Amino acid sequence: MLIDSHAHLDNEKFDPDRDRLIKSLKQSGIELIINPGDDLASSIRAVSLSEEYDNVFAAVGIHPHSAKEMDDSTIDILKSFTNRKKVVAIGEIGLDYHYDNSPRDIQKEKFKEQLDLAKEVDLPVIIHSRDATQDTLEILKEAQNDKLEGVLHCYSGSVEMAMKYIDMGFYISLAGPVTFKNARIPKEVAKAVPMDKLLIETDSPYLTPEPHRGKRNEPVFVRYVAGIIAELRGITFEELATKTAENIKRLFRIE
Ligand code: NI
Questions:
Q1: How far apart are CA 231 and CA 198, in angstroms?
Q2: Domains in the chain, CATH or no CATH each
Q3: What pTM was estimated for this model as a whole?
Q4: Distance between CA 42 and CA 2 in Å, rounded?
């Protein structure tokens, strides 16, 4: 059984068939999924899904794209959800200098506030970082204490940077891009990350892996991410599935 550590099943792209899809996951070899929030509304939808379905866990957080929409009450509202049993992380949070949908100073400020929240409520973080490696690393270094744990989701950086995050206690999660033919760096990362620090995900409905590029992404496609990483590392699919599932349950403290 595989775990998809990052799938936005609350996204409207799943409106037509969400219930059927979630109920069929087990049959398709997917034990559970983690649904992160990207704004307040989607965080609330993620919590609802986690309470409706055994195999869905939630994270609550504001994506850097929506950082500018946060006001004085947002952190308190996020915090109010963190005592729910199936809310397992704060995320996704971070920095996105590729799209710059929110001004960078606001992205940084809101990223820090949400890292503080994670430490306060003792939950791991799910981090989105795009074209913002240096600032992400600096902010995490500053925030790091013995308690702060988390994952760099859909990691797209270098092996060298991955090792810096790992040294700070973070996990690295790979998604669909590792299956792309020309994805030289993600393939290097897939081989280099220590086995006990590696997570897998789909980031559904985005970033559909080969051979389904162009279609809507779904949690079952995490098998293609797992397949290519197992091949690259020279281990069996089963071993990769078992180890990544263990890592995901350890990080998100799922029994
Ligand atoms: Ni995401």
A1: 15
A2: 2-252 (3.20.20.140)
A3: 0.97
A4: 24
pLDDT digits (tens, 9 = 90+) for 159-188: 999 999 999 999 999 999 999 999 999 999
Considering Cα of 131, then 44, then 252, then 209, what sign does the dihedral take?
negative
Query: 167 φ, ψ to 5°?
Result: -60, -30
pLDDT (tens digit per residue) in 89-125: 999 999 999 999 999 999 999 999 999 999 999 999 9
> What is the 66 CA–ligand 1 centroid distance (Å)?
13
Tell me which residues have their CB within 5 A of the ion that is ligand 1: 203
Three-state SS string across 178-242, please? HHCCCCHHHHHHHHHCCHHHEEECCCECCCCCCCCCCCCCCHHHHHHHHHHHHHHHCCCHHHHHH
